Structure formats: C-alpha cells, structure tokens
C-alpha cells in the first residue's frame, strides 16, 4: 500500500519552520478564509500551519480517497463494515428519511415503532403511570459499558440544564465499588434499572445487573418488575425476567459507540423527556444534512478530519487534546476517546495490508478552566507539540451567572492566543528586568518564562449547549472519524482490538480462584496471579 500522504509530507517539509503568525501577516482575511460554518457551529482552523496550498492537497486527498462515494454508501445502507459484513446506519435513528433499505428491507418502520415505544415508556415513568413497589420512580440506573455507558452518561451530563425527570445514574465498571457506591444511597422501591447489552452477555454488564437484582430483591418482592433492557436477545431478557414490553432492541448495523441515538439513549430520554430527546436527534440530523450536501471546502466534518490528519499523519503529532470550555461537556473527551481510538486505532488497511503510516492519534482532554491548572504547562512549554481543539459556547444557560461564562470564554480565547503567540526571550527578559534582576540571574529567570508559541489549535464555537447543539456536536465528531478512516483506508466500524483481552480475562478467572494452575501463562502473569491468590488467602 502506497503512502497517500507523500505529497503532503513534501509540502510540510517546505513550511515546517514557518510561524503561524506569518500566515496572518500575509493574509489579513485568514481568520475568515480558514473557517467554516454549519447551522449554529463556527469552526476556526486559522491557528494552524495549513496554508492554501496545503488545504488544496488535503482536499484533493479526500477526493482521491473516495470520501464522497463512501459517504453515500454509508447513508444508503450498504455494508461498508466489511470485516463484519454489516451496514453502518446509526444515522437512521435520527433520520427524517421515509425509507432506508438494508438487504432489501425498509428499516425505518420498525425503528420508528421502537422510538414510539421508548417515548411511551419514558412518559409513563415520568408521569408516574409506571411505578416501583414504593411509588413513582425517583432514580434510574443505567448499567452498560463502552458505548452503552459513555454515550448516555456524557449526554445526560451535557443536558443537565434540561433534566426534569428522575435522577440518572450510570454504572459501567465491573469493579464492585462502582455499583456498590451507586446503589448505596438509592431506594430499591423507587429505582428502575436499565440493563444495556445488545447480546445480554457482556460480562461486566451482566455481572453488575445480577448484583443490582440481588440488591433490589432484599426489598422488592419481584425485582424484575423494576428492570428494563436494551437488548436484541429477547430470549435472554425473558430468562432474566424482563417482559417484552420493557425490552428495546436495535440491529447490528448500529455500533456501540455510535448508539446513543438508539434505545441506548433510553435513560437520556427518561431524564430530559421525549420531546427534548427528539430535539437532540434533530440537531444530529441537521449535521448529517450538512455533511451530505456541503462542498468539502466548507464541510465541517471533512475539515475537522483534514486538520487532524495534517497534524498526526503529516506533522507527526501523536496526540490531540480536546478542551471543552463548558463544564457540562466534562465527559466529552472520554466519549471522543472511545469514538476515535476504537474506530481508527487500527494497524491494517481494508485489504489487510499493514498501514505505511500511523493511524488514529491518542485523544485526551479535560474541560477548561480545570485543565489550565493541570496539563496546560506541558502544552505551552513542553518539548512535544500537542494540537488542541477548543470547544466553547458564546452564552451559558444561567443568565444570572453570565459574568462567569464571559470569564470562561475569555480564558478559552486567551489560551489559543497564547499557544499561537508565545513569549519571546526578549519580552521575558524585559519583564524580569523590571523586577530588578540583572546579569546571569536575569537570563536564567527569563528563559524559564519563554513560551515557544507557534503551537496549533482549532476552535469550535456555538451559541449555547442545548439538546440540539449537543446532537450536532456528536454527529460532527462521528462524521469526522468516518472521514479520517476513509482517508486512512481502514475500517472504522469494527473493534477486534478489544476481544483478545476479554478472552484472556475469562481464562484467568479460574487461575485467580485457584481452580487452575496457570502453567501456560507467561512468567510475569503467573507470578502476579500467585501473589494475588496469596493476598486473598487462597
């Protein structure tokens, strides 16, 4: 497989020592020319070292890689997840389309019927028509892992200002402390437990589900009456005791990390109500329409992807910091870690050949301004360049605290400006000279206060964090990951990398219990298992 980034690598070599500020000096309209809008979103990528020639090469790469053709195939229900022979149709759950065919069958009627059942159940619970043994449901515990947890947990926190239903709680880790600490303050008689597992066999989820059932059985005569399931394995949900009217399934063409629009979002629908959930889906559908229709040069998902590829595959920056200046988006970096790193953390192309370049970057981050007092030191003065993606809203949702939101926004813009401009040794020297330093000590102290600058960042700006804008934001990043995957030539929709560890964990359990000797394990694993048995008194 040839390196399709070769022309970009050659171009980058000619501009690698250029300061981004020089681009602004050469083009007074750069902030306008290197930005794009879609609905409420403005994406500014002018604070990067991409020039017109570089963007031309990136756009040509997107054309040559067949992004448009692959995009059309995805939305039309073709089986672009080739290693699993599946369509990729998470977009159908928010689509206004009358009909979408998969294997000749229209998937939209059953999909709409499921959404209607979800809305009816959510309303029945919110209005007190569906009740627990002790009365109206006050708390909902969603038990899942991966996409069955990260999506709704992230979205529920993001929509806190619109929450008007029962309190939502999320359990994912098989560590017993997680479910213990979540259930401890709750009343079993007024708690609903949602078990989210498509196959109803996910070991972490089902272990936690059984623990929750035992907890509830201490008080509730028939605990299954206060359970619901997000699963397509109706035989297994029935065996667990959950009746069909409280089981909501979805097809295998919805991957877990793309599933918050589907029944996996039931907890969110209960928390904010079916109408707000529909607005959440509508915001995503609007981004879908933009992605399908806008030219690549003005297409936000495409531009986000191209900037990401420029920084990672072309310039060699291995990580990407996602920095939302919006506290309710605190879980967004973790959500995007899974979305991008599980999707594009691959080592072979679609045909199974080794990639001749790196695949997806390490994605990480925290909300501002917290991160400023943690890792921004490394971003500003460390030896590695970390491209930053700032996400910020112009207005908060608390009118009486707007002065605080303005301070938040000021911090966001100041950080991107500081990364761009830096502080030269001359400026730092002048500052320290005013403090009375001179000679060798002046130089030493000044050097500690130098900021290299010329560090790239992008800014995604929108008005307020609402269900609509949250939906658009998530869809924007979903499509960004898709575009990056197409250009990299990989399958973004399988996740074989998570399987091996799970298989080995099942084999290790009896070793840790003292029921197997573990002779086949490597020396380190065997020694650790022996010590664990000793500490547990086995």
From TrEMBL:
Q: Per UniProt, which keywords does this protein have?
A: Cytoplasm, Gluconeogenesis, Glycolysis, Isomerase
Quote the CDD domains the UniProt record gives: SIS_PGI_1 (cd05015), SIS_PGI_2 (cd05016)
| Listed pathway(s) | Carbohydrate biosynthesis; gluconeogenesis; Carbohydrate degradation; glycolysis; D-glyceraldehyde 3-phosphate and glycerone phosphate from D-glucose: step 2/4
Taking the first listed entry, what is the main subcellular location of this protein, grouped into a coarse class?
A: cytoplasm
EC number(s) for this protein? 5.3.1.9
**Function comment:** Catalyzes the reversible isomerization of glucose-6-phosphate to fructose-6-phosphate.
Task: Spell out the family assignment given in the record's similarity comment.
Answer: Belongs to the GPI family.
Protein name per UniProt = Glucose-6-phosphate isomerase
Report which gene this protein is encoded by: pgi
């Amino acid at each position: 497989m040839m390196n399709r980034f070769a022309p970009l690598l050659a171009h980058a070599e000619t501009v690698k020592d250029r300061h981004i500020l020089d681009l602004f000096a050469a083009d007074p309209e750069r902030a306008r020319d290197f930005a794009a809008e879609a609905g409420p979103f403005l994406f500014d990528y002018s604070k990067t070292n991409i020039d017109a020639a570089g963007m031309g090469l990136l756009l040509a790469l997107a054309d040559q890689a067949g992004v448009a053709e692959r995009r059309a195939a995805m939305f039309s229900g073709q089986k672009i997840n080739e290693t699993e022979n599946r369509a990729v149709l998470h977009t159908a759950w928010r689509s206004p389309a009358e009909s979408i065919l998969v294997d000749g069958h229209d998937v939209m009627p059953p999909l709409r019927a499921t959404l209607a059942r979800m809305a009816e159940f959510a309303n029945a619970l919110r209005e007190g028509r569906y009740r627990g043994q002790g009365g109206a449901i006050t708390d909902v515990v969603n038990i899942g892992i991966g996409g069955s947890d990260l999506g709704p947990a992230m979205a529920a926190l993001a929509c806190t200002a619109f929450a008007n239903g029962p309190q939502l709680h999320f359990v994912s880790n098989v560590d017993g402390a997680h479910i213990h600490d979540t259930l401890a303050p709750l009343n079993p008689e007024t708690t609903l437990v949602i078990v989210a597992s498509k196959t109803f066999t996910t070991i972490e989820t089902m272990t936690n589900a059984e623990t929750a059932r035992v907890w509830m059985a201490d008080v509730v005569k028939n605990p299954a009456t206060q359970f619901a399931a997000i699963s397509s394995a109706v035989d297994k949900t029935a065996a667990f005791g959950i009746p069909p009217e409280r089981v909501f399934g979805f097809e295998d063409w919805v991957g877990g990390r793309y599933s918050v629009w589907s029944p996996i979002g039931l907890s969110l629908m209960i928390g904010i109500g079916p109408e707000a959930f529909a607005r959440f889906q509508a915001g995503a559908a609007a981004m879908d329409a933009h992605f399908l229709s806008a030219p690549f040069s003005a297409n936000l998902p495409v531009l986000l992807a191209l900037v990401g590829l420029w920084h990672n595959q072309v310039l060699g920056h291995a990580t990407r910091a996602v920095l939302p200046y919006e506290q309710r988006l605190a879980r967004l970096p973790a959500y995007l870690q899974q979305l991008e790193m599980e999707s594009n953390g691959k080592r072979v192309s679609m045909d199974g050949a080794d990639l001749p370049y790196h695949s997806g970057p390490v994605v990480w981050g925290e909300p501002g301004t917290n991160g400023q007092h943690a890792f921004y030191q490394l971003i500003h003065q460390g030896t590695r360049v970390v491209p930053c993606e700032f996400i910020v809203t112009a207005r908060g949702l608390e009118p009486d605290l707007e002065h605080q939101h303005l301070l938040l926004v000021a911090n966001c813009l100041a950080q991107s400006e500081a990364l761009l401009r830096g502080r030269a040794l001359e400026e730092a020297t002048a500052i320290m000279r005013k403090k009375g330093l001179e000679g060798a000590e002046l130089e030493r102290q000044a050097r500690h206060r130098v900021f290299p600058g010329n560090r790239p960042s992008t800014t995604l700006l929108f008005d307020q964090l609402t269900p609509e804008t949250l939906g658009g934001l998530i869809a924007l990043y979903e499509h960004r990951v898709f575009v990056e995957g197409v250009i990299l030539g990989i399958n973004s929709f399988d996740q074989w990398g998570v399987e091996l560890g799970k298989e080995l964990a099942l084999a290790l359990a009896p070793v840790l219990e003292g029921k197997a000797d573990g002779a086949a394990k490597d020396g380190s694993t065997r020694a650790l298992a022996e010590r664990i048995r000793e500490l547990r008194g086995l």
